[in-house]
Amino acid sequence: MKLLYLRTDFYGAATDGGSFTMQKGIVGGLLDCGVEVEIVTSCPAPDHGTVPVHTIGYNRLMMNLPEVFSIAHNSRVVRRIGAVLERFRPNVIYQRHSSHNITGAMIRRRYGVPYILQFDGSEVWMKTHWSKTYLPRMLERAERVALGCADLVTVVSEPMRRMAIEAGADPRKVVVIPNGVAIERFSPDISTGDVRARYGWEDAVVVGFVGTFDRWHGADVLAEALALAVAREPSVRGLYVGDGAMLGAVTDIVESHGIADRVVFVGRVPHDKVPSYLSACDILAVPTVTNPDGTEFFGSPTKLFEYLAMGKAVVATPLGQVAEIVRDGENGVWCEPGDPRSLADRIVELARSPELRKRLGEAARRDAIEHHSWSARARALIEAWENIRRSTSYR
Predict the structure, then answer these.
(1) What are the residue boundaries of the structural domains of the chain, listed by start?
(2) Which of 61, 76, 250, 315 is in the most buried spot, having the most CB atoms within 10 Å?
(3) Terminal-to-terminal C-alpha distance of the chain
(4) Per residue in 258-307, pLDDT tens?
């Protein structure tokens, strides 16, 4: 099987974060399963080893017209991708969905190559609630075309499956494939390096968080909870890895509560360095909060699977898929969404019980190995595509 991974959103120089982790993970999983993979991207790609990467850059003359920029890029990609298709001859294209992106549909029509749409969320919903759009009808129409023309649509959670169907996908062609983890890279055997010694935390109980500090991540809730937990259990420390829109609000909370000497912000680090920071932690937090408009949380946090694979005690809010992955008292513990006191209670409980942390961490690691590897996700993707292929005339 030959698969062409297509990502044409504009992401500048960034090569880390959840979407890149997913990209590297699923490509690696497909390679493990014997699939030939090549990549077409519109910006410099993360390191994929020996996988061929072809870059089709944006027209820089349109940089100040963000949505027109994306719309025009569809045709640019379709024109330039022909040479790659002619040489590589993929069986299928796996396209990451993005704003105003109908490249998969256009390629399918022009070159006859079927495509799978990796639908990580509705751009219409995200632009409406977290950003803005100047061309709402065109954005909605593009999303409907991308979903409606796809031969298969992959989503990371059941709530996102319903979102995809509402946005125009054929229910028979939508399959849930959650995010996953590289279980060899994220492992209890990873050395902490000098992280704990660097901060004088040899005897501390460290609570860790990795993320891009977006609104739904709950990094601010964790900051409030750390202040409450430290007051009850002085051994508690906080370690934040990442950067993003909410960082300033989080640091303000830490400073206002007088715990700046107990919490460290290391900023954004290369993804291959993340395991050593997670290894330095005793407790790992997924304090996700509800969507501001009251809709169901539709994410599949990459960090959750990485936490599990590290064999650490996980505390999480049971929203959406998280409630399916983390089972309270079995492979982690739950806290109430958006409630710092509830989160602090669970942190203190775990901080005071090394035995509980050990039991939960061991169960978490087992789950990661048995169910959540990127190879398992790739197998699920291949199986879903084979089912679609068998029900049609594809060869």
Answers:
(1) 2-180+373-390, 195-371
(2) 315
(3) 10
(4) 999 999 999 998 888 999 999 999 999 999 998 877 778 888 999 999 99
Count of beta carbons in the 10 Å neighbourhood of residue 275: 21
Tokens of 343: 């989160």
2-180+373-390: which CATH number, 3.30.465.10, 3.40.50.2000, 3.20.20.30, 3.30.310.10? 3.40.50.2000
Burial label for 194, CB within 10 Å (0-12, 13-18, 19+), is exposed
Classify domain 195-371 at the CATH topology level.
Rossmann fold (3.40.50)
Walking along the chain (395 residues) 10 residues at a time, the average pLDDT comes out as 93 68 93 96 84 87 69 90 96 95 96 96 83 86 96 96 94 96 94 87 95 87 98 97 92 97 94 92 95 81 96 96 96 97 98 98 98 97 94 62
The token pair at 357 is 């942390």
